[in-house]
Fold this sequence. Notes:
The complex is a heterodimer. Chain A is built from 3 helices and 5 strands. Chain A is α+β, with helices and mostly antiparallel strands. In chain B, the strands form 6 sheets. In chain B, strands 1, 2, 3, 6, 7, 8, 9 and 22 form an 8-stranded mixed β-sheet that branches. Chain B has a 5-stranded parallel β-sheet with strand order 11-18-12-13-14, covered by helices on one side. In chain B, α1 runs parallel beside α3 (72-83) and α4 (171-180) packs across α5. The relative contact order of chain B is 0.16.
Amino acid sequence: METGKIVVTDRSGDRHELDAVQGWRVMELIRDQANDNADLKVEALCGGAAACATCHIYVDDAWADRLHPPRDEEVQMLDEAFGVTDRSRLSCQIIWSPDLDGLHVTLAPEFD
Amino acid sequence: MTLISKPASAPIVTDAVIVGAGPVGLFAVFELGLLGLSAHLVDALDKVGGQCAELYPEKPIFDIPAWPRITGQELTDRLMEQAAPFNPVFHLNQQAQSLSQQPDGTWRLETSAGTVFHTANVVIAAGAGAFTPRRPPIPGIDAYEGKSVFYAVRDRSKFAGKNLIIAGGGDSALDWALALTDDAASVTLLHRRDDFRAAPDSVEKMRRLVAEGRMTLAIGQPSSLEGEDGHLTALNITTTDGPKRLPADALLAFYGLKPQLGPIAEWGLNLNASTVLVDTEKFQTNVPGIFAIGDINHYPGKLKLILSGFHEAALMSQEAFRRARPAERLVFRYTTSSSDLQQKLGVA
Ligand SMILES: Cc1cc2nc3c(=O)[nH]c(=O)nc-3n(C[C@H](O)[C@H](O)[C@H](O)COP(=O)(O)OP(=O)(O)OC[C@H]3O[C@@H](n4cnc5c(N)ncnc54)[C@H](O)[C@@H]3O)c2cc1C
Ligand code: FES
């Protein structure tokens, strides 16, 4: 199993280097390593089914072109997110592989 | 099944009130019913099925025992069919709000619509919480909510003669934009992209109204509100060409639904984050007569799976029976061989 790192900027602007494992969703990597840090927490209510938009992140400019483009399902679900930009993705739809080693993402604001 | 959305004038007396009509609440109707107990259900949604119906009606589930593959909606429909012999009564579009104990030890539960129940057993099958509209995180929006910012339309006459902004790209946004064009002074539909997931027919109607100049389409996202004392005067939005100001009297925002634990958190139950702690014999909370089953509960080893909730419903029902029928004896029976159970199911 290949492993590596991702870099996540949390909602208060702090950077975290997290472990990454091949085949895991970026949402899962963040969720399982957020511990008790509320600013790093992803709610991920639907468990990764692109059905809740509570795992919204912004992909760093340098990485934007290196990810596979979103499927229709993801784009439609992003309609229910807030503060969506052209860097917006649902982190449950990005599956980590070694070519994403060092991937940098920023958590989007949460709904109330 | 019976659907009630208006409050009854007198309290409803029943053996159990189930808070949440998700898959687990629906199966609890069946398990309670086998023991001869009646149930009323309350749900914030306008339909039954909880997460299965709201979040993934078309997606297949592969780990329901004896159903190698079944969609969220199919599962809901089957559970309704299975519960039907027990005539459950559904109170939709309302939240279970306040709970208090009466002098005789039974519970009084009241909903946001004013429906009142008297019952020996309250079964919390609330999943991840009550599905409620998502509130966009615009600074200071609370001051406007209910006055000029709304997430649902209760009384459409309120919007007559107003300059409205309707935000969203799904069916709710499009349906209301179309429905309110005639009454309102103006309607602006605001969506983040020029592509809509709403029904194609509604999108076509909307495009026509925009072409005729009877509706305005704005592509962007809300960023801040302008107004005083909760009365909106303008909505500022961000667009790909920079910020824009849209004058308006009211904003209707449709960003989908999100579960929220809500009033249950104030019922004096022992919680673990936003789940309710229960024992694994009766699935009862720290308060006798209040049970929690399905995704809402927590105990060592808990798995948030539909099948766990089904098992929890069966065990909960045993204790609910003892509370509702203290003078009667509970006999263990199989549905295959008990004529009593078969009579209850209407198959004898
Ligand atoms: C995309 C997705 C895929 C899934 N796939 C699977 C799978 O393959 N297998 C599996 O076993 N599980 C799966 N699940 C999880 C499964 O859907 C849940 O375990 C299940 O829905 C829990 O059922 P429940 O009845 O406990 O709660 P829910 O389905 O959440 O229903 C709770 C209901 O209670 C209502 N409610 C809550 N509080 C109140 C209140 N105060 N007043 C009124 N109403 C209230 C809510 O509005 C809601 O309708 C999946 C979930 C998602 C989102
Ligand atoms: S976890 Fe629900 S959309 Fe990603």
